């Protein structure tokens, strides 16, 4: 009996997934042209150092999209999304600096006058339970 229980516990551990799931629901775009680029920032240092966990292209369907990532560790995160209109995987900018393509961030954080949103405005905690956040383009 003990051996069977031990084997059951070991197999459950082998198939258990470490981390949790983050789902980002994106809406509010009036076009399906191009793609979204989702960037996930695992902590304030990654934001300050411009080193996201990744930049993930997501197809646009009916002005929105859903993106999911499994296996994330608990902790502080932020998400930014921009509308990559020409699908070149770069944030295109005007010659004088500001972005040509629309962006949005977690918690509805707004860009500053001369720069991106503040970390404190975008940050949310990811715990052990799966989490879904909504990002709306306005």
Short account of what is shown:
With 138 residues, this protein is α+β, with helices and mostly antiparallel strands. The chain contains three helices and eight strands; from the N terminus they run H-E-E-H-E-E-E-E-H-E-E.
How much of the polypeptide forms β-strand, as a percent range? 35-45%
CATH class call: Mainly Beta
Which of globular, elongated, flat, extended, rod-shaped describes the shape? globular
User: Tell me about the biggest sheet?
Assistant: 5 strands, antiparallel
Sheet/helix structural class = alpha+beta
Radius of gyration: 18 Å
Helix content: 10-25%
Number of strands: 8
Kindly state the mean pLDDT as a whole number? 88
* Name given to the CATH architecture: Sandwich
What is the CA–CA distance across the termini? 60 Å
Give the low-confidence spans.
2-16
Count of distinct structural domains: 1
Might you state the CATH topology name? Immunoglobulin-like
Helix and strand sequence = HEEHEEEEHEE
Report the total helices: 3
Task: Report the CATH superfamily.
Answer: Immunoglobulins
């Amino acid at each position: 009996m003990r051996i069977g229980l031990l084997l059951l516990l070991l197999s459950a551990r082998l198939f258990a997934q470490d981390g949790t799931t983050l789902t980002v629901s994106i809406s509010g775009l009036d076009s399906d042209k191009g793609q979204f680029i989702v960037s996930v920032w695992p902590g304030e240092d990654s934001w300050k150092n411009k080193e996201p966990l990744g930049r993930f292209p997501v197809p646009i369907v009916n002005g929105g999209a859903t993106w999911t990532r499994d296996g994330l560790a608990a902790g502080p995160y932020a998400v930014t999304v921009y509308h990559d209109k020409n699908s070149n995987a770069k944030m295109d900018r005007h010659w004088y600096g500001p972005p040509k393509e629309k962006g949005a961030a977690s918690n509805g954080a707004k860009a500053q006058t001369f720069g991106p949103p503040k970390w404190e405005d975008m940050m949310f905690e990811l715990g052990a339970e799966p989490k879904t956040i909504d990002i709306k383009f306005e």
